[in-house]
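Hi W.,

Here's what went into the run:
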Amino acid sequence: MTDSSGSFRDPSGHVFSKDGKIYRSVFEPGVEDFEATRDAGVYDRLIEAKLLLPHEEVNPDGLAPERSVYCLSHPRLPMVSYPWEWSFSMFKDAALIHLDAMEMLLPRGFWLRDASAFNVQYDGNGLRLIDTLSVGLKVPDSPWVAYRQFCSHFLAPLAMAAYCDIRTLSLWRNYIDGYPLDLATKMLPFWRLYRPGLFMHLTLHARFQDVSDRKEDIGKTKLTKKPKVSDRGLIGLIRSLRRTVAGIKWKRSSRIWEKYGEIRTYNDEDLARKSEYVNRVVQRLQPNMVWDLGANTGEYTLIAASHGAFVVSIDGDPACTEFLYQRLSQEKGIKGILPLTMDVANPSPGLGWDSRERLSLRDRGPADLVLALALIHHLVFSCCVPLSLIAEWLGSLADNLLVEFVPPTDPMVQKLIRNRSDEHLPYNIDAFQSSFGVFFDFVDQVVLNNGRTLFLCKRGEADSAPRVRETNEW
Amino acid sequence: MKTNSRFVVSLAALCVLMFSANPAHAYLDPGTGSMLIQGLLAAIAAASVTIGIFWRRLRSFFSRKNSGENGPDDR
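Here's what came out:
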C-alpha cells in the first residue's frame, strides 16, 4: 500500500494506492458528511453532471488502514497535473467547476468544504473534482468556509494572469497554498481593482483580511461569533463569484503565430513525411502514455492521440497551451490530451511538504513514448545543455523516444547561433548519436529532404542510467 | 451548595461550548476577515436578489397589464 503524497492534510480521509488501483479511506471525522452526502444522492448527482470523479464503495477489510470506516475505489487518473502547469482557460474552468458544484449543492443543504485548485484534475474526458470528501453538510447560516481559499486559489491568480502578465501563473510554484490577496492587489493595474467583482472579492477582501490579521496579532479581535449568511445571500455570493471569474479574460498575444512560422520552414512534402512517420511510429508502438515535449500547438500531439494514446502536450509558451486547450474545448471529438505549460529546461520540481507533496515531472513518468521533435537544438543552443545531459534526462523519462535531429546547417540552428560561438558545445550528428547511444538503442530513422533526421529509439535494456539520479551534487 | 451550583453551571457552559463547536469544518481556517466580508457581501447579494425578484414581479405585473391593453404584438 502506498499513501498518496498529496492527501495527508484532511483528517476525514486519505488516498492510497494498492496493486495499481486507487482507493480512498474515510475516517471517523468524515463519516457523518460522507453518509449524509451519499444517502441524499448528492454524489450520484455530481457524478452524473460530470463534476465529480466517480467512486465505488468497497469493503475496507484487509485493504484500507484499520481506522477506515469506509473505503472507496476510484478510477486511476492518467496523469496528475498542477495549477502551475495549466493553461489560462483550463485554470478558469477549474474555478468554474467549483462554482457549478456549489450551485448544485447549496439548495440541497450541502457545500464544498474546500476549494483547492489541487482538487481538480483532467480524467481523460474533462475536468473533474477529485476530492470526494470535500462535499459535506452545509453549516446553517454560516459563511462559506472555503471562500478565502477560492479567492486565493483561483480569483487572484486568474486576475493577475489576465491583467498583469500570463507568466504570473508560474508563481504557483511558490504559493502552493494560494496567492496572497494583498500581493494581487499590489500587482494589478489600479483601474482593475475597482471593477465591481474584483473590488468586492479581491480588493475589499484583502483589506478585511489585513485589518483582521492586525487586530488578531495584537489580541484586539472583536469577532466573538461568525457573521450570519443566509442561503439566499450565499447563492448570491457564488453567482457574484461566477460573474467575476467568467468576466476575467486573457487577451492572448500574437507570439504563437511567430512560433508557428517555425513549423512552416518545412516544405509541404517534408511536413507530410514527418507527420506520416509520427503516425506510423504511434501505430506500431501502440503506447498508452505519450509525452510530447516542446509540442508547440500540438500538431503531433493530435496525431498521437488519434491512435488512442493519452498525450501530455508540453510547451513553455502559455499561448501555445492555451491555443491547444481552447481547440480541445471547441472540438468535442478530441479526447485524452492534456496541454501543460512547462519550460522543458526547467521542468516541474517536487514541491510542498518534504518536496514530495506535489510530484516532479519525472516522478509522474516514465511515458511509453516521448516525442522530442525540433526540441534538442533549442536545449543545446538556447539553454546551453550538453547533448549528453539531454540524452540522460530523456532516458529517465521515456521507454521509447522519437527524436528529431536538426543539423547545424539548418536555418533554425543558424538563427540560434547567430550571435554566439558554439565551440563549447559539440553539436553534430556524430555527437548526437554517441550521446544518445549511451542510453538508447536506435531502432529506426528517416532523413527528410531538409536534412533533418527522425530517430526512433528504445531505452537500452542494459544501460547503466539510473531512472532517478541518486547523487545530489549540491 | 453555592459553590456546587456554580461548578455545575460552569461545567454545563463548558459542555455547551465544546459540543457546539463543529470539528468537521475545522481543518480549513476560513479566516476572520474572509468571514466578515462574506457577511457584508452576502447581505448585499441577498438584498439585490430580493430586489430583483420584486422588480421582475413588478415588471411582469405591468407588462401583463400592458399586453392586455395593447395586444401581444405591441412590445
